[in-house]
Design goal:
Blueprint: E1 3-5, E2 8-15, H1 19-25, E3 32-36, H2 53-65, E4 69-74, H3 83-96, E5 100-103, H4 106-115, E6 121-123, H5 132-140, E7 143-147, H6 154-164, E8 167-174, E9 179-184, H7 186-191, E10 208-212, E11 215-217, E12 227-229, H8 234-239, E13 244-247, H9 254-273, H10 284-289, E14 295-296, H11 337-347, E15 358-363, H12 366-374, E16 379-382, H13 395-403, E17 409-413, H14 420-430, E18 438-441, H15 444-449, E19 456-459, H16 468-477, E20 481-483, H17 490-499, E21 504-510, E22 513-517, H18 524-527, E23 532-533, E24 544-548, E25 553-558, E26 564-567, E27 571-573, H19 578-584, E28 588-592, H20 598-613, H21 618-624, E29 632-633
Parallel strand pairs: 2-3, 2-13, 3-4, 4-5, 5-6, 6-7, 7-8, 8-13, 12-14, 15-16, 15-28, 16-17, 17-18, 18-19, 19-20, 20-21, 21-28, 27-29
Antiparallel strand pairs: 1-2, 8-12, 9-22, 10-11, 10-24, 11-23, 21-27, 22-26, 24-25, 25-26
Helix pairs in contact: 1-9, 3-4, 4-16, 12-20
Amino acid sequence: MARYFDGKEVELLAPAGTFEIFKRVVETGADAIYCGGKKLNMRIHRKDYNLTDDELRQAVEMSHSMGKKIYITLNNLYECKELKEVEAFLEFLGEIRPDAVLVQDFSVIEMVRRKKLGLNLHASVMMNAHNLETLKELQRLGITRVVASREMGLAQVKALHLQTGMEFEYFTHGDMCIAHGSQCLYSGILFGKSSNRGMCMKPCRWGFSVKKDGSVYPTGYPMAVKDMYMYENIPEMIQAGITSFKIEGRMRDADYIVHLVNCYSDAIDRYIDDPLAYDRRRHAEVLYQHRKRDFSIGYAFGKPGLSNINKRLEGTGAFYSTGQVFSKPVEEHEITPERIQRVREMLGTGLKNAQKPVLGVRVNSFEQATASLEEGADCIYLAGDVFEPDIPLGKKEILRLTSMKGKSKVFLALPRMTFEEDISRYRHLLSENLNVDGLLVTNLGAIHALKKFELEMGGDFSLNIYNPMAAAFYAAQGLTWITASLESPVRNTRELVQGSPIPVEMVVHGLPVVMYMEHDLYENTRAYPPAGQEANRHVDDRILVLKDDAGYEHPVFRDQAGRNHMTLYKELCLLPVLKELCSAGVSRFRIEARGYSTPSLRRILRVYKKAMADLDSSPELFMSMKSEGPGYTLGAFYFD
């Protein structure tokens, strides 16, 4: 089964959460169905959902007998202990021959290549492919389709499609996320259930009030995104060159999915049959009446702002089928002596790091950078995403820093989302001799676009490197070191470090960004009148905080591009286990300093310099540290 408009394929792609749902969906007007196995995919909350191996085999046979395609989701990040299971499942997929496999972790691409399985691969939305250079590299790796970033508009899709010929899959209807793809780490750090590993506990859908400048705004659910709804824009999607119209909903029931598929299938057929007399609203009212949340067209035609936020039946974050609540606000885990001892035991002392670890710091301003140099930091990362009220460092400031760096190294840290215009700016700037030592890169495309400058390149934690095979992939791309995922628990981190072919950096202190958004929460302070007065408890009143229903205040920083960065509210601190991290083989430590004042950064740097000079003193130094916020946390090291 295939549809074509003006010689271009148009595919309606439907979800199936169980084999029973699959058997109903395959009989509809869907051209293709996507589903997952019982493990290793992005929808594994419910044991009664997903398909067994035997059911997958039958699903492939049924789809092909009816002239339809079937795609299998293998789109998680994978822990070291899961790699053999992933490899075995890939071999099984090589036997049953689905039409494609959706992937996120580069270790999967590497396994398919090594095993010569010949599987067709699609890049999941969680791969966050958002620039031309990344698409070119994915094509070189054999990727034939990209699921477009949720923040990608139709104009950008069209431009990238025309330049590369890459197939694009676009979210057309269903549940959406507030954060950029694969750039929400909070569920993994807070609950040990990573959104990048199919277990998101949806903290974005808690109730929050917004606080800023001493005022409180009763915003309800300010990060609860509406459901995507492109039913009335099918012609524009086709004209943008989108191949696959994706309906989200592998946790939805059969009746709901079948109704959606039938409505969209009818609309596509009607447009193909007669585009001049097409009625784009034929089923619009019916879809609206049967909605789960209110509807939005997301970023399809521009930045939607507050119009993208849901106000209807929100705040529970409930499972679609059972009504069970995903999560409620809880405190970020405090550091305890018992947990410190447990982490030490798990890290062990099996390896001895021959070299003194490098101490790096990501800074937000020239003042922070000079302070870091004066305090003896080994490596300074000049942030590409700069928190207001600071502004990005310019050429003169960079040259001043590199002229005074001494034995320290100065790196340019790229923005977490690095678009063509960002790459162009850095490429132009680097054509002059700035005397920088390297780049901290955030995506695959930037590595290849800037490789010609022959600078040292390290990989930021936004690459979500979870296992040694992914580390080896990035080493082959030219990185000289990588940063471990902030979500990686203790045992997995140890195995990643010891199995990686290149050095591994760890964020050991600071306020790391755990939710990275295109959405600007600061708009709430302009759109709504304040309902009261209340100062922020731990950060400057100029910084917006989200106060959850349990009273915890989550800082949200705004950068120069208007993007929002929610950080931990407790300070991440791995100082008590610094010696064990060194023994396990970690050779680079980093402080995430963008949310700090310069005096606070100086104090922290002095403590870590002392600790690295005498690792045995780390526990005592930690006991003497006083947090300026609500305390310290081990982050994902709270989990084994």
